[in-house]
Structures are given as C-alpha cells and as structure tokens.
Please model this.
Amino acid sequence: MSAHRGCLKFSVIFTDQVSQSYDAILLTCKAYDLEPATESVAAAVGNDTFIVPLLNGLAAYDALDRRFGAQRVLSEFRISPPA
Model:
C-alpha cells in the first residue's frame, strides 16, 4: 500500500503468491466464507499486521479476534468522504 496526494494505492495478490507479511489486510467476505477466508490470509499475517474487516455482523469480529488476536483486528473502521 502506498499513498500519493492523499490517495491510497493497494496491491492485490492471490493466496499462492504470499511470500511475506503485510502491514494491513482488507478482509471482505460473506459470513459463511469467513473461516476459509481467514485460512487463506493467515500466511500474510505477521507480528505487525492489522486486519481491517469490512464485514456485516458482530460475530465475525469475535472469530477474527480468536484467530488473529484482538490487537490485530480493527474493530471500528469508518470510511468518510473528504470534507
């Protein structure tokens, strides 16, 4: 991820391309896909990685806390348009 003039640029990779840990992982999936989704990103999670869940429902946050640790899961994340 890099920033240029207030815009963020993201790199998208497939799970078979993971060779390092990342600063942040945006996790988006349906509730019934949460377990396989967490398994697929686990190799990219390091000591300093944040999981940014963009999910519906609160149960997903508990599952992510158990899997990765509450210190890595951003439980409140808001995207607002610029003022």
